[in-house]
Design brief:
single chain; mainly alpha; 6 helices; about 80% helix; globular
Length: about 120
């Protein structure tokens, strides 16, 4: 199983367990997240770039992977992603660099997976 499949499988499996607890607050929070990234006045591509930059500054590898996947689906190009990386690194500072490395690795996997489809 590759990096992308591992992440997506784990995320799906655990989200199912979380949702099966039927906790109203958690369900509402998940719904709020879903609605925040939906098409609106700001397009999805831009929202994903914002989410990616914020995730990098907050140093959340799971969030970074999620937003990289969504950014890829939204049609971001490598050059655009690297501009987001540059802004996040500028804002977050050198502590972002380890997350930047993992983000680049994940993006390369997304590109490789797309070429093999």
């Amino acid at each position: 199983m590759n990096l992308i499949e591992e992440f997506n499988d784990y995320r799906s499996r655990m989200n199912e367990k979380i949702m099966s607890a039927d906790n109203k607050v958690i369900k509402r929070f998940f719904n709020l997240d879903t609605n925040a990234y939906a098409e609106g006045t700001v397009d999805i591509k831009t929202k994903e770039m914002i989410g990616l930059a914020c995730s990098m500054v907050l140093r959340c590898d799971d969030c970074i992977k999620y937003h990289l996947g969504k950014s890829f689906e939204a049609g971001l190009k490598k050059e655009e992603v690297f501009e987001v990386f540059s802004i996040a690194t500028l804002i977050g500072g050198s502590i972002v660099i380890p997350h930047l490395r993992r983000a680049v690795e994940y993006w390369e996997e997304l590109e490789k997976q797309h070429k093999n489809v």
